[in-house]
Write a structure and sequence with these properties.
The chain has helices at residues 2-5, 63-70, 124-133, 136-143, 175-179, 197-201, 203-216, 230-233, 239-246, 248-253, 270-287, 308-318, 344-354, and strands at residues 8-9, 33-37, 40-44, 55-56, 81-85, 92-96, 119-123, 148-151, 164-169, 184-187, 220-223, 258-261, 292-298, 324-328. By secondary structure, the chain is of the alpha/beta class. Strands 7-8-9-10-11-12-13-14 form an eight-stranded parallel barrel, surrounded by four helices. Helix 12 links the parallel strand 13 and strand 14. The protein is globular. Mean pLDDT is 74; it is low at 1-115.
Amino acid sequence: DAAASKAAEVTPREGSNPSFPMTKPACPRGFGATIAAGYRSVAVRCKNLAIRPLRCRSNTYGAETHAVHCISHALRPSQVLRTTARNPRGTVRLMMVAAFAAGVLASPTAAPTAQPCTRWILTHEALLLLARTFGSDEARRVFGSPCTYLVGSIAPAFSDWGMTPTMSAGDARAVRALALRAHAIIYDPEAWTFTPAGQQRDPVHAIARAAAVAHAAGAILIATPAVDLMRVLHPNERRYEAFLQAGIIGGAARYADVVELQAQGGEANVRTFAAFVRAAARQTRAANPRVIVLAGISTNPSGLRVTARQLAAAAVSVRDVVDGFWLNVPSGGPHCPRCGVPHPQVAAQLLHDFIP
């Protein structure tokens, strides 16, 4: 029966059941799950609090097993799920290495349980600066968990901090290669030379392609479409309003696992910053209630000097509507020609005041 061995791809779609998880975060080191159906195996990474297979083989799994994998997905950090199928026509055998939380198996549509954490995106260079300025022990206390997406290579000093290895690209075509090297991939389309013109003109389509490639490799996609895309799409309109009206961030949320709102350019005016982030977060969650939403903050966005007090005010103004922040500590270079020297002391003061 050839139909029984065919895989049904799980793809985000508008109007989908909100109890059906659309995200697939990366596993903490040492934990994971493997789905094997027929003669094909698909490695599935899971966050310490969630699991979703890359492919739900609805024609192979029975209804109960399908529900366990594709709807109920509350796993604790010490729990690992493994399933195997003996052959393409065989019955799926379910082995629980550790039991699910009480009640999950009994109720296929049970809402997933999750313990809150503040999520961060941080570059390797920023973490090095913060470890020196803020203190290594304090930096580890804040960032030392899978809730931190660390962009770039991980130095030996940070190798046991448990952060999620992350790579970044401005071109969707680079995602395939990067997904083989990291658990999370940032696709960062902006009005710059690193993003091809075609992707700038249709960023949502590019995000959809990047997400499909990342997911096929077992990685998650973090979409960070920049507001400056309005210079290409709506050059004569006010950028924040035009960005929201274009629906780019909502479109990104339909395909990405995490979206980041690049609001750091407005953080010096907390009212402007908060209004944009709140409106964008509403649009994002309307498109996909399960997507992780982060807001961008920066110690010196495009070279603009801000104080730790301004940065803290911006973060506090939106922390009830976002899951965390991309904490930028930029320095001058091809990706930010006007940024100048980094200001890690501003970020260190922010963390001192902002983190209990």
